[in-house]
Automatic annotation (TrEMBL):
Organism annotation: Streptomyces lannensis
Annotated stretches, region: Disordered: 1-23
Pfam family name, one: PaaA_PaaC
Biased composition (Low complexity): 7-21
Gene name for this UniProt entry: paaA
NCBIfam families per UniProt: PA_CoA_Oxy1
Domain of life the protein comes from: Bacteria
Gene3D superfamilies, A to Z: 1.20.1260.10
Protein name, UniProt field: 1,2-phenylacetyl-CoA epoxidase subunit A
């Protein structure tokens, strides 16, 4: 359907509500929505959409936004201890990129009618989640490399298909985010390569970081397909394009040759090429650990949220100043209070 048509039908739908005749009309709008999704058209903020589609997007985009800004913490931990000016400049740029990703995503969620203040409140009070990977500590400098290579690498594998997500603002945010994530992945790889080719101690440090980050990175793709609560509906809506297990397999297949080039091993004795499947087989994932970290029992859950709340409180004066500025210039209510 042409975008103008969908906007016209959305307007008609609102009228229908006012007339009390919403029941029949909703099915017509549902049909138009289904046809647009089937035709690979983008759903835009002013189009009619099912309530559950909107709620699913808000939940997913919020969780994604929260992950971006919480993900700043484990790496920012190393900015003051970066081993050279070059490494420090790269790491600062990367951490700032993650803040930017959070901003694009909170803005995408706002197009669905949910404000950033509400989402942040849900994050701070534990009612919305962020990726569990960020509840692990960054113990050595090599962790910055392992996060870039594996965590940003897994994020790219997850997010490239989201560039074709049926919801326009989310899909468009993903295009830019993926370009920046590619830079993050490369810098992590290059950092690990330097360490791997360095002294015996540096090589051991790189190997230790990969040993600790490998399994949590595989868990980033979420539970196995048969236990994934939201997958089927999200795929029908074309929010999600591939299943968790498919993406996880793709990631493993990408990482194996890269680990070889790095001169590092992946900590899985069961990892082997399967000629018949055309993929690597890999060992079982410890889902007990995954669920435990998800429940809040990871090594850094409390620390991450406490730091986030502190940063939010310390930024109150910025929000107040932005609101005062907006009021002075007659722009109150345009979203400036969320700055
Ligand atoms: Fe990011
Ligand atoms: Fe990143």
């Amino acid at each position: 359907m042409v975008e103008g048509d969908r906007m016209a039908t959305a307007a008609a739908h609102r009228t229908a509500h006012a007339d009390g005749a919403a029941q029949e009309d909703t099915s017509a709008f549902q049909a138009a929505f289904d046809a647009a999704v089937a035709a690979e058209e983008r759903i835009e903020p002013r189009d009619w959409m099912p309530d559950a589609y909107r709620a699913t997007l808000v939940r997913q985009i919020a969780q994604h936004a929260h992950s971006e800004i919480i993900g700043m913490q484990p790496e920012a931990n190393w900015i003051t201890r970066a081993p050279s000016l070059r490494r420090k400049a790269i790491l600062m740029a990367k951490v700032q990129d993650e803040a930017g990703h959070g901003l694009y995503l909170y803005s995408a969620a706002e197009t669905l009618g949910t404000g950033r203040d509400e989402l942040l409140d849900k994050l701070h009070t534990g009612r919305q989640k962020y990726s569990s990977i960020f509840n692990y500590p960054t113990l050595t400098w090599a962790d910055v490399g392992a996060i870039g290579w594996l965590v940003d690498g897994a994020a790219i594998t997850n997010q490239v298909p989201l560039c074709r997500c049926s919801y326009g603002p989310y899909a468009r945010a993903m295009v830019r985010i993926c370009k920046e994530e590619s830079f993050h992945q490369r810098q992590g790889y290059e950092l690990l390569l330097s360490l791997s080719r360095g002294t015996a101690e540096q090589h051991a440090m790189a190997q230790d970081a990969v040993d600790r980050w490998w399994w949590p990175s595989l868990m980033m793709f979420g539970p196995p397909d048969d236990e994934s609560a939201h997958s089927a509906q999200s795929m029908a809506w074309k929010i999600k394009r591939h299943s968790n297990d498919e993406l996880r397999q793709r990631f493993v297949d990408i990482c194996v040759p890269q680990a070889e080039s790095l001169g590092l091993t992946l900590p899985d004795p069961a990892l082997v090429w399967n000629e018949e499947r055309g993929h690597h087989d890999f060992g079982p994932i410890d889902w007990t650990e995954f669920h435990d970290v998800l429940k809040g029992n990871g090594p850094c859950n409390d620390q991450r949220i406490a730091r986030r709340r502190q940063a939010h409180d310390e930024g109150a004066w910025v929000r107040e100043a932005a609101a005062a500025h907006a009021a002075k210039h007659g722009n109150a209510g345009t979203g400036a209070t969320h700055a």
